[in-house]
Structure formats: C-alpha cells, structure tokens
Amino acid sequence: MPKESLREKLNHDNELDLSLNNLETVPVKDLAALPKATHLDLSNNLLTALPDSFCSLIHLVKLDLSKNALTELPRLFGQLENLQHLDLLGNQLKTLPRSFCQLKKLKWLDLKDNPLEEGLKKNAGNCLNEIECKKCATRILMYMTDLDGQLELQSQAKKKKQEEAEAKQKDREEREKQKKRQEKKAEKERRRREHEARRAQELLAQNGDTSDEEITAAREKLKYNAGLKRRDKGQGSRNCFLIVLFSFLALFGALLVAIDFHCISSAKDEMCASYWQPTRAAVISSWELSKISALNFYANYIEKFFSPKT
C-alpha cells in the first residue's frame, strides 16, 4: 500500500483506519514511517499472522485487530510498551506470547470469541462492557506475569538439571579416561615384563640351556644389573657433589691467601687494619692455643699411657 494513501487515511486524531481492506499482510514498513499514527485499526481483514517486525511499531497506543484469523501473536509482542487499548475479538488465538506481561500500560483488552486455553479464558471474562474489558486487561496481565515467573523457574530448573547432567557426563568421561590411562600403563608394564622374559630366554638360548632355574637366574641378573646402574648413577651424583664442594673450599682458601698477601703488602690499607689484621691475629692466637692444648693432652695422657712402666 503506497505511503501517500496511508497519509491520506490518517485523521487529525492520529487514527489510521485500514479496516475492511481484505489485507492479508500488514504494511509494517509504511506504518513505521508514520509515527503519528498512534491509533491503528486493522479489523475485519484476512490477517492470519503478524510479522515479527510489527513489534517495532512502539508508537502504537490503540490497536484494533478484531475479526481477523490470527492464530498467534509475535513472540516479542510485549515490545509495544506504549499500548493501552488492544482489541483481539473474534480471532483464533489459543495462547498469548510470554512477553505479553511486559505491556504494563495496557488498560483495555477484549479477548472474546477466541478458542483460549482454560487459564486465559477464566481470567479474560466476558468483556461485555467497558468496565469488564478494563478488568480483563488487569487480570490477564497478572495471569501472564505469574505464568512468566513459573516458566522462568521451570527454565532455571531445566538449566540446572542440564548442567548437572553435563557435569555427571564430564565426570564419567574423566573416569573413563583415567581407566584407559591405567589400562595403558598396565599394558605397557606387561609388555616390558614380556620383553625382559624374552631377553632372558634369548640369553639362555645362546648358552644352549633353557632350564627354568637358569631362566629365573637370568631374570634376577637383569634386575641386579638394573639396580647396579641405578646405584652407579647415585654414586656419580655424590661424586659430583664432593667435587663441587672441594672446588668451593679450594677457591675460598685461595681467596683468603690472596687477601692475606694483599694486607701484608699494603699495611696502610684501612680495611685491612680495621678487619683483616685483628681477625688474622685472633685466628693465629686460637691456633697457637689449640696447638698447646693438643701437646699438653698428648704429654699427659697419650705419651704417659704408652710409656713403659718402671
């Protein structure tokens, strides 16, 4: 429908009457270009459904969709947030979209002559006059709000149940992986033992004897050789540690000798006079005292013990 003809139908009260036009589709694009058309009459047409884009006509305040063949409303119908008056008389509606509870400004609603499900039918009432239609709007909004809350709880419960199922599945998969890793490890150990057994048999076959006793002895020998290898490896680690320790002590001793030589050559060095010379004197004094104590101990006990008795 041309936009010019729509403008011609728009009256001074911002009412756009498109009733009785045998419309099968709604010219949403043209209607969106007329934001002043806050009252829209689409009654007595051949509409069976509204496009999703219809929900973009948020300027609508009054909407008449009566006496069409609508079987459902768009899922986002609740986006028509400014809607106050809605006439759905004489359609084929059984349910309303979940978003219907978002029509907080809705004051008037007519749902007569629709094959509504029991809950909607009970709350819609007869709507035979203005007061009943206003009550219908209030009751239906309350009903749809409660229904939305119940559906949300069901959705959360379903989501939680799904998450628990996924967690259990993940746990089962992890246990299965662990089991496979253990089986793989056990299989590897079995192949290793079989390989050792074959090597033992080959060694005995080379000597021309394959008795059970010698096979057992060969296996024990293999284990003993493996133990020797591990022990040699540990001994090598200890030897490396001793070499490193000895090198450190030798380096430390060389450092002390170098410091002593420097301080003897440079008697006026303040660091030597303040730290090294007193330390050196204390060490020499301790060494002399230790030597005297050792000589006295030797004279009083060792030499006396081993000297011939007269």
From TrEMBL:
Top-level taxon of the source organism: Eukaryota
InterPro entries, sorted: Leu-rich_rpt, Leu-rich_rpt_typical-subtyp, LRR_dom_sf, LRR_domain-containing
Record's keyword terms, sorted: Leucine-rich repeat, Membrane, Repeat, Transmembrane, Transmembrane helix
Region annotation Disordered: where it falls in the sequence: 158-212
Transmembrane regions listed in the UniProt entry: 239-259
Signal peptide: none
GO cellular component, one term: cytoplasm
Name under which the protein is recorded: Leucine-rich repeat-containing protein 59
Keyword Transmembrane helix: yes
Annotated Basic and acidic residues bias: 161-177, 184-201
PROSITE patterns registered for this protein in UniProt: LRR (PS51450)
